[in-house]
Amino acid sequence: MKRNIFPKPALYLLIAGLLLTTGVPLFSRYVPMPDALKGFLSGLGLALEFMALVKAQRGKKGTHCRQAAPPVV
Fold first, then answer.
1. What is the DSSP code string of 10-31?
2. Rounded to the nearest 5 degrees, what angle is found at the Cα of 8, between the Cα atoms of 20 and 67?
3. What domain range includes position 55?
4. pTM of the model
5. Distance between the two ends of the chain, CA-based, in angstroms?
C-alpha cells in the first residue's frame, strides 16, 4: 500500500486555511463583522490552502519548478 505523507509545513498551512475558510462564516453569524473583513479572512484562508497544495506538490517531486525542455525537431 502506498503511503502519501504530506510535509509538516504543508499540513499546518492546510489546516490553518481550512479553519479560516470554514470558521469565518460561523464566527460572523454570532459576532457582527464588516463584509471587507469577512472577505479578507476568507481569501486569506484560500491563499493558505493554495500555498499548502504547492508545498505538497514540491515535496512529492523533490524538486522546485523548472523550465520544460525545448521541443526536439
1. HHHHHHHHHHHHHHHHHHHHHS
2. 95
3. 8-60
4. 0.73
5. 41
**Number of domains the chain contains:** 1
Most distant pair of Cα atoms in the chain: their distance: 64
CA distance 40 to 24: 10
Q: Residue 21 has what pLDDT?
A: 94
* Residue 54, SS3 per DSSP: helix
Q: Is residue 43 part of a domain?
A: yes
The label of the residue with cell 460572523 reads 28
pLDDT digits (tens, 9 = 90+) for 8-53: 889 999 999 999 999 999 999 999 999 999 999 999 999 999 999 9
